[in-house]
Amino acid sequence: MLQVDLQGGFGEKGRTSVAVSDGNTCIMLDAGIKVGATGDEYYPVLARPVGEIDALFISHAHEDHIGALCHLLRQGYAGPIYMTEETHSEMPATLAQYADAADLAEFPPRAQQIRLFRPGETVSVGALNVSTGASGHVVGGVWFCVEGAGKRVVFTADIVPESAVFPMQALPVCDLLVLDTSYGADPIPGAERARQIGEWVAGYADGCLLPTPLSGRSLELIAAIDVPFAIEAGMRSALSAQILAPSAVHQDRVSILSERLEAARDWNVGDPLPDCPLLVHDGMGVAGPSRPALAAAEAAGFPILLSGHLPAGSPGARLVDEGKAAWIRMPTHPTLPENIALWEAAGRPRLIGHSCDAAALDALCQHIPALLTGARTGDTYQIDEETIHAHSDFQ
Length: 395
What we know:
Blueprint: E1 2-8, E2 17-21, E3 26-29, E4 55-57, H1 63-66, H2 69-74, E5 81-83, H3 85-98, H4 101-106, E6 114-116, E7 122-125, E8 128-134, E9 142-148, E10 151-155, E11 176-180, H5 190-203, E12 208-211, H6 217-224, E13 230-232, H7 236-244, H8 251-263, E14 265-267, E15 277-280, H9 290-300, E16 305-306, H10 315-321, E17 326-327, H11 336-345, E18 350-354, H12 358-365, E19 379-383, E20 388-393
Helix pairs in contact: 7-8
């Protein structure tokens, strides 16, 4: 029997975390924070003391998947931390923006805890085998398949089957699929959204602001934009490393992205806003250069396009609500047809959705009846010989 504890990101967006145990070994998958939340709601709800966690796996370096790492270390987690080399490289910037400052200063990740793997490799922890695959979401991002006690649980983390930039490896057949349902039943494909964004940006080719996460969506936007643009100067080296990482970008996109990045102008916080589209990070205006850039753009009446998740209360959400910024989704999560295809390819298993609210789950269940719409942070599920059933609430 495998036990699956939903520690964050279920019935909500943020603090993504899952624990899987066979009764002898327990592994934790992701340790995110919830932007806009405070107190205990900012962090995952751990199902057990950290001393009972044998290994931690991080899917990628976005804040809702890694932002609680130092918090976990403060609580005494001393075991191995598995991640890809690219996630390890991007981790410091994310923690600097989203970890508690005292936690980061006193409990930074220790080098001896870090274990690097490549997408496609399998790691064994006790009797549990954790296979991985490229997620299509960011460079170095992965999904996880945990196999033990004759059962398989797949946790996709954030995943993009049809990214124009990043390749994704196919999911295995499993007994329980914990799926990225960030977009609920949104059916509009990424190519159409990219076309819409490209047209919007072309209409403001003489100046507009595009806040974006440093990894993932930045390259998707660069692929969609066909006019000269500028980037916040600190992004350049990170974006170049992402483009050139081995097998991380579709081969036919490497030269195009490299050429567009090389031609991009550099911009620094405090400079006048440029007479061309400007990419700055992060995507919500919560941290990084986008926070002062958004303030400057708002004051100047400079056109703004947001293209991802905007937590309530974030600067980006306020600007959209007030009609001071446009919003067009750039898909960096699966749309409805993609999620149906993922579920079918995985053998049509029982399914739990993460990173969306109850209304989105209800809408998606009309298309995927195996979806357990009542699954929430704090729930525990057990996979035995015959069934998958809720066991108890560990909150």
